[in-house]
Amino acid sequence: MMPWLSGICTLWLLGVVVLAQKNFNFVSPQKNVAPAQNFNQRTGLTTDCLGGYMRLTVDKSLAFGSLVEFDAINGSQIEPITPRLATTCGFSIDSDPWGNYRVFASFLNCFAENEDDAVFDLDMRVRVRGVNAEQEIFLVDETCTRDQWAPREVLCDRNYMEVSVNRLPGEITAMRRKPKMAQKTAVYDNRWTDTVSEAITSENNIWRMVFFTPAQKAIAFEDALKAGYGVTTTKSRLVVRSGYDMPETYDENVNGIPMKIIRVTTYFKRQWSVTMLDTVAACPTGGLSFTDDMITWYFPRFNPLMTSTENRILGLYMGINGKQIDSAQMAARGYILTIEGNNIVMKLPIGGPDGYYKSHAVDNQYHIRYNIESMLELLWSEGGMDSTRYRVLFPIKTPFMPRPPQLVDFTAVDGRLFDVLLGTFLYDVELVNITFSTGVLTLAEANMRGFNVQEQRFQNGSKAFRLQVPFSDSVVVKTQTDLLLTVYTLRLIYGFMIVPESVPFSYIATVDASLQDVVLPNVSGSCDEEKFYIMVSFGNMGKNFNVMLGTHDLTANQRADYGVKENDTHMSLEVPFLARDVAFELMYPSSLRARLDVLIWEPVNKWTLSEFSLACNFPMTMTECFSNGSMSALAVKVESVPQLVPRELTLRDKSCRPKFSNDRFAYFSFDANSCGTTRTFYDGVMMYQNEIGLGNALPVYQKGKDSRTPDPEYRVTMSCFYKLNDTQTIAFFTKPRENEPLPETGFGELHVVMKLALDGSYTKFYSEEDYPVLQYLRSPLFFEVVLLKSTDPQIELVLENCWATLKEDRNSTPRWDLIVDGCVNLADQYETIFHPLTPGVVPYPSHVKHFEIKMFTFVQNDVTPQSQIYVHCDAVLCDVDQNDGICKRQCPSPIPLKTGKKVRRDYNNVQKSQLSTGKILLSAF
Fold first, then answer.
1. Looking at residue 353, what DSSP letter applies?
2. Other CB atoms within 10 Å distance of the CB of residue 692
């Protein structure tokens, strides 16, 4: 500096102040801002004056979940604080994940009302807009004082650098002409004088600014303002403010620490004088190192603000969130601030209470960072002269620390419930949805489905998410890995969101649980004289298996041939004993022992689930003896001779071969005195005997066995017995007789049954175990009357009479007629309905009758004695060619029916059957 010009400089700087106020259009605030709509002076706003700047804190209780914006008040004007305005005018805004906001406003900001550089009125507005778009506005009015300013003040904030210097006499150089310059020790003295000539010739003769980048670059004041620099003057100071990314800033590595620097000389020119002032600010942008538990920040002991190494540190302080803390607070929190060689070193433990952790998603992986708002304040003097106060607000974020969440499995296998806990996460992670094997569900949808999704919080502020899903839900994949073992698999993709940034990430998990809970299919069966009746119980495997009958799987055609019926739990089928899937074990003279093997197997893993064999003797005539002296015999290929070919069988006389044969049977018919038949006499009886065998065919050898071991011998012996000394006389006439002989009458029984069907399709019927059957009033009852085991198409079944009684006795009273003499009861309000049979449904339609009635109850004297009925019928079997009586009755009945009482008639040459159902109850609901 040039103290010999200081008196002149003071005068001209007063003029500069006036010029600055004109250019910035400063208006003194009058505190008369019009009141905002919905104005509310409620709590939640806190202000602090922290020596050089004001800190405004907006509590999360006021701001969380809302859009918060800030305005600067300039007299009667309101200026929204945009990022550009904040950098230019001295504001910085920060928020944390909880919704707390902090605003730092320099005392020397563009809008502060400054009184003698000692009292500063700072007015701001806070606008809070909620989810309903309604806006609340809060006014902030704070007055801060500053007793003493250092000759040079440097502030490094988050988004800008600010330097202010005294412009009092002795610190400003005024020049009327270019002086003879003495040799200077300062680095930039020569540069400063070299630029005076350019300043004097500036366009419009207004002040200019020369930036050093480090090369010189002159910019007109108006252009500097347009570029975003903040330049203003107060009563005693010049203030220059720049963002870190401005073109005229430059980087410099100081003792291994990167710093951002701005150097600028400001020139004031009038017609007969030039005033210039030099300013420089240097702010660190690095110098951090990290361990697992400690942050270390290195700051250069000698920095570009110092013009020589002859400086003396007058004060060294650290702070948090813009506020100094004392040594006791530092010790309590484990903070360390020391000077080590050429560096000032600050150490802060990771996880300390003054900072906070924040969640991040890096490549879809969960990470966290520790954040702390550190501050360094340094006061020094150079050569025992003017001092510099240097304050750095330095937010620190640790590198990303991976924190992969852990899945803890609490699954209760016996309770058949998946129970998993995923964590831990910080407070700012929200679970949005979960993708299951069947699709994506939000948390609300998952809970509505019957899952249990809950957030669990822990004392340290972290949280986890618990999910419960029953094994039985369709999102669970079931795999049978063993015959009795089921593996239940729950595949999950958790969808998370980090707030308030709305950054998504996901976590994929698979949970398995094994349980021996397989109930295998079970097979049971029985036989009658014609068929095997097989019942398959599915167990809990559903229908995921194949059924093998004999040696082949059940085909679609066989399902139809065997009358397969199934529901959700069972399957039934009827297999004739002569079916190809039946194996023949033994032959007897009048029966055949046959066996049906049933195998239930799982086709994917080739597991045998159930095996069942049923062997029964079925009546079958194997040998017939005729009175004309001829014999017939049936040979069957039995299981014990698997390689037998029936057509190669012969009688004793090898020339006597089967009259008919296929791959299972051989049929022989021959005279008793031929084919090598022997005759033996016993007491009063003569026996004819022959044998069926392989004849002269070579022995048949079994595949896969020793070639010397033949199949078992096949030999069937047949015998016919005739009584001796038995004379039969046959008389005949040569001319016709008046009366032809009548055939001898035989006697037998035909089986007729009546069944109650479940519905009008007549495909399913109630069994004996289902009675009593419960029905609603006037609901339809469908009856079927059918003739069983008859293949005679000349027989027709006719319903003669049907009626209902209150009691099981078919002759009891009261009773109500339903069908009378083969016709419906016309006196019934709800007439009985005959249903014709669909062609092709049954082989003999004339053997079946279908009719329908409406459910009713008996009433006597308007009182219902009991809500039950029994239905009875008399069925008649007629010859289709019979033309008399009930067999050819035409309806409607010509007989007048008024009382509904039964009319009995008897007919000859017909067979009658009496039929009744079980109890049918009237339902009250």
1. T
2. 22
